Task: structure prediction
Amino acid sequence: MRIISVKDYQEMSRAAASLIAAQVLGKPDSVLGLATGSSPIGAYQKLIEWHKAGALDFSACSTANLDEYVGLTKDNDQSYAYFMRQNLFDHINIPAERLNIPDGTNPNAAAECARYDKVIEELGGIDLQLLGIGRNGHIGFNEPADVFVRGTNCVQLTESTIDANKRFFAREEDVPRQAYTMGIGAIMLARKVVMVASGEDKADAIRATVQGDITPYVPASILQLHRDFVLVADEAALSKLDK
Ligand code: F6R
Result:
């Protein structure tokens, strides 16, 4: 594990975007595993800026997003498909047919999870997986559980996650209760994992991830076993680590 310690969200975003840019420059047909949420937005803005300046070409890349809410269409402004278009895809040049995200409108969870696992397999796995982290240590929407789940799965979101995500919805009851998420297997098989974490409300989760026991009750803790895991975090997120 490598920890890149930065001052604040802005520095975190630039450092994470630099890692992604290095990946794309080194392997133009990279498969990028992408995340939503507030943590990666700044990194996406940097990538857009560098693309617009002519420094980054994504035309040979493919993507696989981590997760999607069950029941939301791609046009729903709270869907992760919509988020990705707004915050990245509409502003760079990855061909639309190579953008992959679980289909929240498929009511058949088993079929959708199997389809998405096949998509990832056919892409040849993920070259660089970008992750945020939940306050409870979740990655993707793999919530604390009795076991690490290997494949794409349909999860019941925990109260902690619903509470954290309600800020994006008009009312708490509008927050979907289920999501499809890439499993821990695909994340661990990614050739490089970059996690971004900013702010004091992530400090407990970061401590448990970096210095705690490896347990499915803190899903991110399994990343201690990943051979190329880079944590890019600001001072507040790192503030509870033992020195
Ligand atoms: C999003 C995702 C989640 C978020 C996590 C942190 O695709 O998979 O695991 O990364 O909930 O969210 P933010 O960044 O909003 O604090």
Notes: The CA atoms of residues 61 and 171 lie 37 Å apart. The beta strands are 2-6, 31-34, 62-65, 67-69, 99-100, 128-131, 153-156, 178-181, 192-197, 229-234. The two ends are 16 Å apart (CA to CA).
